[in-house]
Amino acid sequence: MNDNHGRIKTDEQKQYFKDRAGTDEARFHVVPHDDEGWAIKMEGKDEPELTTSSQSEAVEEAKRMAEEAGTFVYIHNDEGRIEEQHNYQDKK
User: CA-to-CA distance for 29 and 11, rounded, in angstroms?
Assistant: First the structure.
């Protein structure tokens, strides 16, 4: 199965994210969304937590959400590759 960016997700990867969905282990990802937008997606969920036209707005909100939840946020570039990560696990 391909994700929105043509990458293939294995059954093992899908199960990994599904197992973490809704737990303290779930992490936030800032990812490209639709044609020119950005989304914050929580691992294991299909629907975004937030969508916006601005990557910087999505990044700031994802950092706030991750800090509140005590988890990680991963920032993807416009090609879908992870470029940054922020750890808020010890800041809760």
Answer: 20
How many angstroms separate the CA atoms of 7 and 33, rounded?
Answer: 15
Other Cβ atoms less than 10 A from the Cβ of 57: the count is 14
Residue 85 falls within a domain, yes or no?
yes
Tell me the pLDDT tens digit for each residue of 26-44.
799 999 998 789 999 998 7
Residue with tokens 């293939």: 8
Under 8 Å between Cβ of 6 and 12: no
DSSP symbol at 62 = H
- Considering only residues 65 and 91, tell me which one the structure prediction assigns the higher pLDDT: 65
Query: Is the distance from CB of 41 to CB of 29 less than 8 angstroms?
Result: yes
Tally of domains in the chain: 1
Cβ-contact 48, 30 below 8 angstroms: no
